[in-house]
Amino acid sequence: MPQGLQIFNEDGSVKLDTSTLLGRVIGSVQVAAGQASGTIAHEQFSQGANRPFLTGLFGLGAFTGSVLAGPSFSQVTYTASGGMISWSRTTNQYDNLPAGTLYYGVF
Amino acid sequence: MPTGFQSIGDNGNYQIDSSFASLALVRSGSLASQQYTNGSTTNTSPTRVAITLNSDEILAIACTDLCALGSLVGNTAYVYVSAAAGRVVEYFIFKPGSAGMSSSGMQVFNEVGSITFDSGWKLFDVRHIFEGYGSVSLPAGRKYAFVHSQIGTQVSYNRVVNGIPPNSLVSYIRRTAFSCMSINGQTLVSQLANVDVAGTTPSPGNVPALSQTLSNNVTPQFLIIDVTGY
Fold this sequence. Notes:
With 107 residues, chain A is mostly beta strands. Helices cover 0% and strands 41% of the residues of chain A. With 230 residues, chain B is mainly β.
C-alpha cells in the first residue's frame, strides 16, 4: 500500500486498508401497508464512488383472494442513480403488501 | 463535510466518515431450523429459524443449505431454509455505532461527541457483491455470510385434487421461492429455492382449477460479508 490509512489487528494482520469496503447504514424509511413504490434521496449515495444499497424487512401479508390460506411475503427491487434510490414491490390478485422498513446505506 | 474525519478507499469509496457511524457486530449465534405451519400446511422442508432483530439492526446469515431471509414479524426475523429440520443457520447482527468502545486503537467521533468508528469493532466488511444465480469461489481461509440486497421471487398457485371424483378432496397450494444462498467454505451458491408452502384445508367440492406462476423478474443481489472470527 503506497499511501492511505491502514489499521491492524493485535496479531499484526491488516484489519483495514484502502481496498476495504465498509458498509454504513445511513437511514431508514417506514413503508406503509399497500405502498408499492417510493424514492429515497441522500447526499451520501453520490459521494465519491460510494455504492448505495437497500435491504428490506417486511411483515407477512394476508391473502385478498378467498381460496388461499397462510401469510404471504413481500420483497422490493430497486435501482440507484444520481443520488437517488427508486424502489418498488409487486403484488398480485391474491396477496396484499404488508408494512415494513427499508434500510439504506453505502459501502 | 467541513470538519471531521474521512477515509477514502482505492476506488473512491468512503470507508469511514465521522458523520455516519460504521456498522459493527452486536450479536451473533447459530440456530437449528425447525418445521412450521402456514395455512393448513406443516412444512418439513423448507424449515425456518426465528431470530430476534431490533430496530436499526442488519442481519447477515450463513448456512450450508440454501436459505433466505423471509420476513420480520414484530422483533422476530424468519430465515427460511430449503431443507429438512435441524440445519444450522449462523447469524450475525450489525448495528451502526453500537458495539462499545475499545481501550486501544483508533476511534472517530462526530461533532456531538458520539462514536462513529472504533478499530476494535467487528466491522461490516463487504468482500463481494454477488449478482444473479450460479456460484462463486472466494479466497479460502475466510468465513463468509450474506445480506440480501435484492431478492428474486417466484410464487406458484395450484389446485391439488386428491382421490377420484366424486370422492375427492381439493385444496389450493401456494409455493414461494426466493433467491437463496448456500455457503460451504469459500464456495457460495445462489439459486431459486422453495422457502414456503401454504395450503388450504382439503375439502370436497367442485372448485375452479388454478395454475399460475408469478415472478418479480429480479436479478438477485447479495452483499457478501467477511465474518472471520466473529
